[in-house]
Structure formats: structure tokens, C-alpha cells
Specification:
236 residues; alpha/beta; Rossmann fold; DNA polymerase, domain 1; 2 domains; six-stranded parallel sheet; 41% helix; 10% strand
Length: 236
């Protein structure tokens, strides 16, 4: 995958939008632990199974809202911002000590960068969490734009974030990238559904769910399995 493949003519494949947690960094389990650390004082605990089944796709705010609506979390919604702040502090501490890039990510980003492929992130995580990890890894410069939980009103599977990421990628471009020329890489069906609703092509990586649980045009175990030719074929 390391060789460069220069696009010739009017290539159909022109951009990649990544999810963050579970695609670039192995941090889903850290989010899970941080949520439970905050919820503990309210006598609420999420199991691993229910977190991955029902909560992983939510932003922090929506996760706490869902727990309130379920009747499990006995607080008012105006208390959610303070809970999100506490969760963020705990997560950042865990990420600094235990967070790591997923194998194959750095090389894959390098190939895209070498071929001048615009890259963005669309994530339900908070911007400071994303920025911290990318800066620590020396990868921030690869991404032209980051759309995080703070930037959207509706989280995945709503396509708002995907469309906003593409809009930002298109800023100052004379020739606009179309949704059909964009490949989205996700680890959950929430994100894959958002990409499809935005009219984009999809790759699922099995970092959080098995291949039988992902609905994508291409499914891989590791980004090292993907080549530029593969991404171009998706957009043909």
C-alpha cells in the first residue's frame, strides 16, 4: 500500500472522511470507562455489551440524555454539561496514559497525504479530545477539517456531520468534491448509516464490531488492507 498512485484525469475518488474513536485511535473502551466513572456516583453502570450495542454511537450529551429518558439516570437535563466536563477530564487522563493509534492508521494516512487526497474527521467525540490525540501522535496536519460533537445539532446516524465535513473540505476549492466522490471510514453502523444518507461511499473496519454486524460496501480488519485502487473502485 505504500506506493503513490497519482490520480489521472477526472478521478471519481477525491476525499476521505474518517470517524475517530475506533477508526484512528483505540479509545472506545476508554470512553466506556470514563462514562462509568461519572455514572458511578448515581448508582448507574453500563455493561460492556449494552454500551457497544446501544450507546457507542452517541455523543456524550446524547448518551446522558438517553439514560435520563430511559429513567436510569435521575438528573435534570441542565446538569448534563457538568457531567460531560467531568467525563472529558477522566477520558483525557486515561487517553494520555493508555490511548494509542490503531495499527495501520499512520501508514494509511501517509499514503493518502502523499497522493494529495483531502482528509477530514467526523466524530461524536469532543474537539479537545480529538485534537489532543492527533497532536500527541503528530498527525494533526493530515486533516483539513474536524467536525466534532460541538459542531452539529444531530449526531449520527443523521448525515449532518458528514455533510458539514464535506462542506468544510470544499472551502476555497474551485472544483467542489461531490458526496459520491467521498469515502467514509467507520467502525459502527451509526456512522455508516450517516455516510450513506449523505450519499457517500462506505468502508467498515472491524475494530469495534464484527464483519457480520457492519453494513458497508467494503469491510476490512485493518486499514493496511486498503489501497487507493480500492477506494477508487468504490467511487466508480
Amino acid at each position: 500500500m505504500g506506493r503513490c498512485l497519482r490520480n489521472k484525469g477526472e478521478a471519481m475518488f477525491k476525499a476521505v472522511i474518517f470517524d475517530f474513536d475506533g477508526v484512528i485511535t483505540d479509545s472506545e473502551v476508554l470512553h466506556f470507562r470514563a462514562f462509568n466513572a461519572v455514572l458511578k456516583q448515581y448508582a448507574v453502570e453500563l455493561t460492556t455489551q449494552e454500551y457497544y450495542k446501544s450507546y457507542l454511537g452517541f455523543s456524550d450529551v446524547d448518551c446522558f440524555k438517553f439514560l435520563i429518558h430511559q429513567g436510569r439516570l435521575k438528573i435534570e437535563e441542565n446538569e448534563i454539561p457538568a457531567m460531560v466536563e467531568r467525563k472529558t477530564v477522566i477520558f483525557e487522563s486515561l487517553a494520555k496514559n493508555e490511548g494509542q493509534l490503531i495499527e495501520g492508521v499512520r501508514d494509511f494516512l501517509a499514503v493518502l497525504a502523499a497522493n494529495d487526497i483531502p482528509m477530514g474527521i467526523c466524530s461524536g467525540a469532543l474537539l479537545p479530545e480529538i485534537e489532543m490525540t492527533l497532536e500527541d501522535a503528530g498527525l494533526r496536519g493530515h486533516f483539513q477539517t474536524i467536525v466534532s460533537a460541538e459542531h452539529v445539532k444531530k449526531s449520527k446516524p443523521n448525515p449532518e456531520g458528514m455533510l458539514l465535513a464535506l462542506k468544510k473540505l470544499n472551502e476555497n476549492r474551485s472544483e467542489k468534491i461531490q458526496p459520491s466522490q467521498c469515502v467514509v471510514i467507520e467502525d459502527s453502523n451509526w456512522g455508516l448509516q450517516a455516510a450513506k444518507a449523505a450519499g457517500m461511499h462506505t468502508v467498515g473496519v472491524t475494530n469495534s464490531y464484527g464483519a457480520d454486524q457492519l453494513d458497508a460496501e467494503r469491510i476490512v480488519a485493518n486499514l493496511a488492507e486498503l489501497s487507493l485502487e480500492d477506494l477508487q473502485k468504490l467511487c466508480e
